[in-house]
Specification:
Layout (H helix, E strand, L loop, with lengths): L3 H9 E5 L2 E4 L3 E8 L5 E7 L4 E4 L4 H11 L2
Antiparallel strand pairs: 1-2, 3-4, 4-5
Length: about 70
């Protein structure tokens, strides 16, 4: 059973990695880019200019949420 709190949480936050959840309103964009080790992968840019790695497992879900938001 999902609660109202669960629904509100999903409307306001986005899991981008096993160890990273971000406020949806802080996400500017999703881009393919190299990480610190030079490995290609996906990352989201936050409104403060910081980049967070998006896990392969979460990329499709992140894309879907951002598409619904018009981003």
């Amino acid at each position: 059973d999902r609660s109202l709190a669960d629904d509100l949480y999903q409307e306001a936050f986005l899991r981008v990695h096993r160890n990273a959840v971000v406020a949806l309103g802080a996400v500017r964009t999703l881009e393919r880019r190299a990480d610190e080790d030079g490995e290609e992968g996906w990352a989201v840019e936050l409104s403060n200019g910081e980049w967070l790695t998006v896990s392969r497992r979460q990329v499709a879900a992140v894309r879907e949420v951002l598409a619904r938001q018009g981003g």
